[in-house]
Amino acid sequence: MDFTYNGYRKMIYSLREHGYRICTYRNWQCEEQCVILRHDIDNSIEKALQLAEIEKEEDVISTYFVMVTSDFYNVFSKKNEELLRGILSYGHNIGLHFDEMRYSDIFTPEDANNRIINEAELLEKVIGEEVKEVSMHRPSKMILDADLKISGEGEKQLTNSYSLLYFKEFKYISDSRRRWREPVDEIISNKLYPKLHILTHAFWYNDIEKDLRSSVLEFLNSGNRQRYETLLDNISNLSSIVKMEEIY
Ligand SMILES: [Zn+2]
Fold it and tell me: Which end of the chain has the smaller Cβ count within 10 Å, N or C?
C-alpha cells in the first residue's frame, strides 16, 4: 500500500471486497468479520480533516483521536475547533489521544484514569459532543499492563483502544513512523484474521506519495508559513519587517 489518498481508498475497497465490515469502537460487537479504522492526530488537524473527507466520500466512519496537550496544535483555537467540527460533520467520532508523559504525577493506573477523564471533559467542551474513546500516545508499560477500564463520575466511561481486547480479539496493524510493520495488503486479502484494528496517521498521506524525509521536511517548513500568517494578525505591517518570501 502506498501512502497516498488513492492508496488509502484502495485499502478501503480491499477491506470491503474481502468481507470486512467497517465499524467503530461502538458498533463492531455483533460482527463476525470487521475492521476498526483509527487515526491518531499527533501533528496536524488539517491533514486529519483531509483524510476524514476522503473517508466520507467512501462512506466510511472512523475514529480520530485528538490531543489537548499538543505542542503542535491548540484545540481551543477557533481554527482548530472548526476543523474538528468538520471531522464530526463527516460523521466520524472524535476520541482523546492521551499523552501520559505530559504529567509528572502519574504513578498509578488510577492517576492516569483521572487525568484522562479530565482531558476528555476539556475536549468535550471544544467539540460539543461526548468523548467516548481514548487512545494512548506512546504509552508506558505500566499503562499497557494495567488494561485500564476508564471511568469517571456517574455513568461516565471511555473505551480504551489500548485495552487487551483490541489487541487480542483484533489483529492490530499500524503505519507508525510511515512504515507498516507487517504487510497490510496481504493481511487483508488473505483474510488472515476475522477482526482488524488499523491505526493510520493522516500525516503520512498525500495526493502524490512523499517519502519519510519529504513529509517531515514539508511539515516543518509549512510551520513557518503558518506562523507568518498568524503573525499578520498580531503585528501590523509585518511585511515591512519580514517578507513572506524570506521564510522557507
Ligand atoms: Zn500519538
Answer: C
